[in-house]
Amino acid sequence: MKALVLGGYIATAEGWAAFSDECEALLNRAGMASFKTSALGIRLETAAEFYRIIEAHLSAGLTCIVPVGPLRKVVGELKLSPVFANAYYLGCQAIINLTARHQEEMGLTQPIDFIFDEQAEKQRMRAAWDGYLEGKPAQVRNLEVDESDANVLPLQAADLFTWWIRQYWLKHGTISRSENIGLLWQHEIPWLAAEYDENGLLKELLHIGRAVAIEA
Question: With a threshold of 0.90, does the pTM exceed it?
Fold first, then answer.
C-alpha cells in the first residue's frame, strides 16, 4: 500500500545548535559530506554515533503515516473537495497538532518553525500548509522548504528517522509507540506518532467536513 510517511525531530534552538556542531565534527572525522541514509546503511558505526547525537540534544521525534488509497476513497465517498486528497494536508495537520498538544511537556515555549525538504512535492506541501495555517495560533508561525536535505543537518536526522519508520510500517503494516520500530539502536527519546487507517481517515475527514463546504 502506498502511503505518505512524514517524520522528523523537534528541539529548542540551543539543542539544534549543539546537535549541528557535533554532527559537523562527526562528518569531518568520518570523511562524509552528509548523513544520508543511503550512505549510513553501510556505515553502521557512524549511523549509531549520529543517532547518539540526536538523543543527546533533540527533544522528541514526530511521525505521521497517511495511506494514500484509503484517503482518496474516503474523500470521494464524502464528496469533499479534491484538495483533501492531498496527503500532505493531513500530514502537516497531524505533525502540527502533535507538536501543539505536547509542546509544554517537551519544554518548548517559543514559536516553532517547521522545515521540510523539497523532494517533488513542494507545491502540494505549500498548498496544504497554507490551507492548514488559516486561523492557527502564532506558535505555529513558519514553513521553510529547503532545496535539499543535504544542506540542513536537522533534515538529515529526519531522513534517518523517517527511513526506519517507513521500513517498519512496510513490514508490519502499523507502528507502535511501545516498540523499538526496528531501529538498530535503543530509542532513548520520546517519539509521537499519528497513524491513520481508513476508519481514522473517515473520522478525521468527517470532522473537517463540518467546517467546509461539501460538494454536491
Answer: no
